[in-house]
Description:
Elements: H1 3-6, H2 25-40, E1 45-50, E2 57-62, E3 65-70, H3 74-87, E4 94-97, E5 104-110, E6 127-128, E7 131-132, H4 136-148, E8 153-157, H5 174-185, E9 190-191, E10 193-194, H6 199-202, H7 213-229, E11 235-238, H8 255-266, E12 272-276, H9 296-301, E13 312-317, E14 340-346, H10 362-371, E15 379-383, H11 399-411, H12 416-427, H13 432-450, E16 487-488, H14 505-512, H15 522-525, E17 528-529, H16 540-563, H17 571-603
Parallel strand pairs: 1-3, 5-8, 5-15, 8-9, 10-11, 11-12, 12-13, 13-14, 14-15
Antiparallel strand pairs: 2-3, 2-4, 6-7, 16-17
Helix pairs in contact: 2-3, 7-8, 11-12, 12-13, 13-16, 16-17
Amino acid sequence: xxxxxxxxxxxxxxxxxxxxxxxxxxxxxxxxxxxxxxxxxxxxxxxxxxxxxxxxxxxxxxxxxxxxxxxxxxxxxxxxxxxxxxxxxxxxxxxxxxxxxxxxxxxxxxxxxxxxxxxxxxxxxxxxxxxxxxxxxxxxxxxxxxxxxxxxxxxxxxxxxxxxxxxxxxxxxxxxxxxxxxxxxxxxxxxxxxxxxxxxxxxxxxxxxxxxxxxxxxxxxxxxxxxxxxxxxxxxxxxxxxxxxxxxxxxxxxxxxxxxxxxxxxxxxxxxxxxxxxxxxxxxxxxxxxxxxxxxxxxxxxxxxxxxxxxxxxxxxxxxxxxxxxxxxxxxxxxxxxxxxxxxxxxxxxxxxxxxxxxxxxxxxxxxxxxxxxxxxxxxxxxxxxxxxxxxxxxxxxxxxxxxxxxxxxxxxxxxxxxxxxxxxxxxxxxxxxxxxxxxxxxxxxxxxxxxxxxxxxxxxxxxxxxxxxxxxxxxxxxxxxxxxxxxxxxxxxxxxxxxxxxxxxxxxxxxxxxxxxxxxxxxxxxxxxxxxxxxxxxxxxxxxxxxxxxxxxxxxxxxxxxxxxxxxxxxxxxxxxxxxxxxxxxxxxxxxxxxxxxxxxxxxxxxxxxxxxx
Length: 615
Ligand code: GCU
């Protein structure tokens, strides 16, 4: 089987599998250029010139060819850009370009036993049997793939730190981590590490109370040691007081106190502290209708604006709930003008089909980015969708999500059609248009069969794949839809929980009124009767029925479109992806029938078009 058949080359089909050689990023850039030009059969002369423009680069014409000019990492990005353009048969000429976000991060949720939380592509690329244990060649190819779309920082370990992962910041593991950092550095990629907030309490200091001087000293010593091994570490990423993880609240202290303490330990080395804002009551009583989970992050952090140190960055999920198929942008991303923020996306398809069902995420991300003001976040991070599967992402087409994320992180904007076309042209030049069309049609299909009008969380508890309309309805997680025989949804307007009041006025007013609320978010913000009349004259319930019938049909159409490509695809790629589409079609039917039956049984109202609903 050649490499194209395995999916291992990803979109870098123009590069040989041999890893580049060199001791510096510039060596790597030159090595990649040579290898790429020769495999593309490109004869013109291409010079690489280094300047002091950091990650930026430009590509101009010279008398007898081209000049790629850029800073230390810029030349590498310039080389990948050049090769990508040639492979796509486009002009490589590029006026000076520099990244929108200075840190463009992947957060892996890998555990040291080799499992990956919310991982759908095999085991961890980094860990095995509680050791850093990886295939070095593979890490080179991973780093090359990330660098080709400008990702410049990765966090290899899970935000939920399970022992012995806490020891990564000690001598037990630092020598191994240093080796990983040394490889990644060649590709302009820096490490970031998650830490266990309570670690000083059981590892020498007796407490992790941020008020105690001993705890400050403990973290200062840790930071000093970590930076001795990895001088360019980005910093720490922390999940504190979130989903049973300890944090400052455990000690009766504030998040400013906790975050600033850690940030001060990192400051002497130029390190940053990424502090996740996924903080809410995960022990809610479903009978409690006052508490409204989407309000939690804003309520916790907005009053603290201006109180965090300069090297603290609040890392905020794109939506206020949790990576659902359809959510408004988090109100916290509009707030806190005097605080550094990172936007957190999820490439891993936790709620969007587990990389079994196809869901091209660039449209969802475009919807997030176009809602927000340009400077809403200074940094960007995303939960990775990679594992040790040969094709990296489980589903070959899910590689497009990784590609699109990198492009967004560079541009600060999402252009789904453009990224799909680029990716498909590079990966499957023989069927680029058809594959791009399949990608672009995929999210609407999934949204229709899985998530009516912004409702969310009708998934199987814990695994988050497949339908379970009341799977979370009587749980502790605060994710209720409260369907009864006449209505569904939580009233989050000014007449209800008041969540809409967390938005700037113009958005708050828009969301507050069902008549002006974007239809796709209607049930995120409102509780409505099944006979509520929608803009096009259909009732809410009929719209839900129609979407589910249509979505399942669209899933079948995706599979049929793929089947058309049988003669254009390498055989194994074709079969692998077809097997995923077969599972998707089955899943879509299950969603359609379970959700429609559920609403029919609740409401007693039949489908106006008389289609089959199970009673
Ligand atoms: C979700 C996800 C968890 C994850 C958490 C987080 O709840 O299901 O697996 O740990 O988000 O972002 O911290």
